[in-house]
Amino acid sequence: MILSVSAGLLGLLALSIPVGIVLFLLGFGISEFFSPFPLLRGLGQLAWSSMNSSTLIAIPLFVLLGELLVRGGVAARTYAALDKWVSWLPGGLVHANIGTATLFSATSGSSVATAATVATVAMPQAERLGYDPRLFAGAIAAGGTLGIMIPPSINLIVYGFLTESSIPQLFLAGLVPGLLLALFFSLVTAAICAVRPELGGERRTYPFAQMLASLIHLVPVLLLFGIIVGTIYTGLATPTEAAAVGVAAALLITGISGQIAVPMLMQALYGTIRITAMVMLVVSGAAFLNFTLASAGLGTELRAFMDSIGLGPLGTMLVIVVIYIVLGFFIETLSLMVVTIPIMVPIVVELGFDKVWFGILMIVLVEMALITPPVGLNLYVVQGARRSGKLQEVMVGCIPYVLVMLAMVAALIAVPEIALFLPNLL
C-alpha cells in the first residue's frame, strides 16, 4: 500500500492538480480500496474539525502581517539599510540579501513571502552592479527558506497543531538553528567570493554617519519581532493573540510612514485570503488523507517496516532523513509536512527522540525542499523576479546553501541541544 499511495501522490502532482485536491483524491481512493469503513460519510466532520482550531487563526494573521510590511515599503528600507552595513564584505550585496531575509523571516512566517519580497527589492541591484546571477539569486532563494524556521513560523504552527506540541517551545527551538543557518550562509558566501572575487560584484563602503542614520530603518522589523516574541514568552499573549498584536503594530508602522491607503490594504487582504485559503485546503485535505491512511493500517505497516530494518534509533533516523530528502524533490513543503507528520512523529517518539527537536530537524529538511528541483518553490519565486536568465542558474546558485543545510541536519542529530537549549533553559 505504501508504494500505491506514493505512486498515486506523485502521479497526481505530475498532472499539475492543486495539492489540496490531490490529498482529497488520494483519501477517496484509499477509503474505496483499502479501508473497511465508509469514511466518505464523515468527510464533512473531518474537514470541519481539521480547521476548527484557534491555533490556526494565527496563520492568516501572520500572513497579513507580512503583506502589510511588503506593501508598506518596510522591506525595501530594511534592504537599503543593510546594504550600507555589509557591502564591504566579500560578496557585497549578497550579504544584504541574506540579512534582509533573516530580518523579514522574523515577522512574515512564510518562506515564499520572504523570498518574493527580497527578490523584488534586490534583483534590480544585481543587474545594475554586475553580480554573478547564480550566486546572487541562490542566496535570495536560500535566505527565503529561513521564513519557516525563525519564529514566528507558519510551518511550526502547523507542526505544533498536528503533534500537540508547545508552539512557544517550537519557536524558541527554531531561533538558534535559524540564526546559525543565516550566519553560515554569509560565511559560505564570503569564502566563495574571497576565492572568486568576480562573483561578488563591487565591494562598497559608506560614511559612518550614513551607516548610523540607516539604523532607523531596522527599527520597525526589530520592534515587531520584539513585540510578537516578547508577548508570547512573558505570558501576555498566546501565539494567536501575539499575531493579532503584530498586525496592529504593522498597521501603526505603515500609518506613521505614510504608506497606508485603501488600495494597499485591499491588496494586502487579497493576498492574505489567497495564501490562507491554500494553506487551509492543504491542512484539511491532509487531515482527511491521514485519517484514511490510519484506518487502512498504513501507520502500522510503515512502523513494521522500520522495525524490520533493525538499524537502531540512529540508523532509523538517518533513513527518515533520506526519505524526507527524496520526497522533498517532488512534494510541496507544507504538503510534505502534513502528510508525513502523523506517520513519522509516532515512530520518532517511539525511538526515544524529542518531538520538539524532530520538528526543527524536519523544518531544515523542508527548507532544503524549497530550493531543490523540480518542485522547489523558492527557485520559481526568485526566477520570476528576474528579468533574464534561466532557472538552472538559480538552481546552481543554491548548491552551496544546500550543503550548509545538510551540515545543519548532521549537527542537529549529533548535538540536539542546538535546538533544545533555549526551550530547556526556559
Would you write up a description of this structure?
With 426 residues, the protein is an all-alpha fold. The protein has one domain (53-260, 297-425). Helices cover 77% and strands 0% of the residues. It has 21 helices and no strands. Helix 4 runs parallel beside helix 13 (239-256) and helix 6 runs antiparallel to helix 7. The chain is globular and about 65 Å long. The termini are far apart. The relative contact order is 0.16. The model has no long low-confidence stretch (mean pLDDT 81).
Instruction: Quote the beta fraction.
Output: under 5%
Query: How many alpha or pi helices?
Result: 21
Number of strands: 0
Mean of residue pLDDT values: 81
Q: What percentage of residues falls in helices of 4 or more residues?
A: over 70%
> Strand-and-helix sequence, N→C?
HHHHHHHHHHHHHHHHHHHHH
Span between termini: 43 Å
Shape: globular
Tell me the radius of gyration.
21 Å
In total, how many domains does the architecture comprise? 1
Low-pLDDT residue spans: none
User: Which class do the helix and strand fractions yield?
Assistant: mainly alpha
Biggest beta sheet summary = none
Function: Part of the tripartite ATP-independent periplasmic (TRAP) transport system.
Organism: Futiania mangrovi
Protein name: TRAP transporter large permease protein
Subcellular location: Cell inner membrane
